[in-house]
Amino acid sequence: MNAPTRLADQIADPLLIAGQAYRSRLLIGTGKYKDFDETRRAVEASGAEIVTVAIRRTNIGQNADEPSLLGALPLSRYTILPNTAGCYSAEDAVRTLRLARELLDGHDLVKLEVLGDPNTLYPNIVETLSAAETLVREGFKVMVYTSDDPIVAKRLEDIGCVAIMPLASLIGSGMGILNPWNLELIIGGAKVPVVVDAGVGTASDAAIAMELGCDAVLMNTAVAKAQNPVLMAQAMKKAVEAGREAFLAGRMPKKLYSASPSSPDSGLISPKAA
User: Fold this and answer.
1) Is 137 exposed, middle or buried (0-12, 13-18, 19+ CB in 10 A)?
2) Is 228 exposed, middle or buried (0-12, 13-18, 19+ CB in 10 A)?
3) Is 111 an active-site residue?
4) Which pLDDT tens digit goes with each residue over 27-67?
5) Given the residues 111, 141, 225, 238, the one annotated as active site
6) Mean pLDDT, to the nearest integer, of 249-266?
7) Which residues, in sequence order, are CB contacts of 155 under 8 Å at separation 6+?
């Protein structure tokens, strides 16, 4: 159950994921806020159309006697992206997303993440590859969290994942992009969208990711744990938009030194004339 299909020809520079077009290139998580009202206000401020939901931690209907996130973020307005946060094996991840599909009436766009270590939350690539193969075979459209290894990214694309989501740095670290060169290798070799996922700390991190050529940025902690989450969400929206525009514009070449003044040096008034 996605938000209504958006036609690419009706949107300038759309983000295309699994056949759907989106205006916003910012994807935002729904965890770690103080309550669903703060979640709603931050998501609205971000302009995001795709929101991630940790199925094992957030109620979207599996607990009938508890408030549901879908009350704050209705399916008519947002594309819900169920994710497997907290899963440490392919088996758990696949089971979790099968449950999500049942809860959301056949929804097939999902985010896969299989963690390898509870302290760093670094992805377990072996289990991720295994889960991806199973999910794609079962008809899921898989957006996959992974390391910044270009070889792994290509393998996940070859399996059939609809988006590759390399980390910028560790989940929740706020350390920003630690290895831009690997990200550029992934971007250069990918034929599906590349979405930076994890490690963004502030607006400049999001802008840098977009300037590198990433198709989108996904974040949660950077907004939810800011002193003012709603204001930070607004900042992230602007940063993603500015970074995308800078990428499309094409930056000037970097030079160690160049005697090229920004003002013309012809037609200057001669000292003698003065």
Assistant:
1) exposed
2) exposed
3) yes
4) 999 989 989 899 999 999 999 999 998 877 676 666 666 67
5) 111
6) 76
7) 129
